[in-house]
Amino acid sequence: xxxxxxxxxxxxxxxxxxxxxxxxxxxxxxxxxxxxxxxxxxxxxxxxxxxxxxxxxxxxxxxxxxxxxxxxxxxxxxxxxxxxxxxxxxxxxxxxxxxxxxxxxxxxxxxxxxxxxxxxxxxxxxxxxxxxxxxxxxxxxxxxxxxxxxxxxxxxxxxxxxxxxxxxxxxxxxxxxxxxxxxxxxxxxxxxxxxxxxxxxxxxxxxxxxxxxxxxxxxxxxxxxxxxxxxxxxxxxxxxxxxxxxxx
Length: 248
Prior knowledge:
disordered N terminus; alpha/beta; elongated; five-stranded mixed beta sheet; 8 helices; five-stranded parallel beta sheet; 10 strands
């Protein structure tokens, strides 16, 4: 058994938005170097996007599914119990194996399950070393695939999770610069209305399942109010009327 105080290492590895070719070399090396790779799944148990990506680079027997309450928002007690159980499971793996990689879609420091897990593990496993390996985000992938430029010159970039409410998104759209919205699939109608009200509909684009066979990338003007996949991403580019280099 490893000396937990001196050798336990938990590494959050960003594996990108879905396309396995968008995992960095450093990310692949971290996955392969770990004794075990944890992937988060919902309590329904199906293979998640992180697991599907990881399996391109490590053997299935090295991968361990851990259930997280990824879709639980209303029942706080149930969510907390699920998080505690997940933390205990990962802590157990650290004590047994010493080196655990946690694969998360996107980047481990951007709206990631890993943030909360790391806080829990720090309390359960004294002396554990926590590291992260950055990953390509959905907004970067959508920008590349759609041709939407995220920022120019002095433009700000605002990232909004629409789970915080459409009012937060509308406030961002009223401001300057590019606005990126995450997790807006269930509130697609409200997002479309906010874009119309702020005059930002024309250049906006949304995408889901980026890099996967079911990928969809469309102009936001085509949003018809129907619900979209939960992990949909929207880019509303900055208003640019100054010509080339106008924001420098």
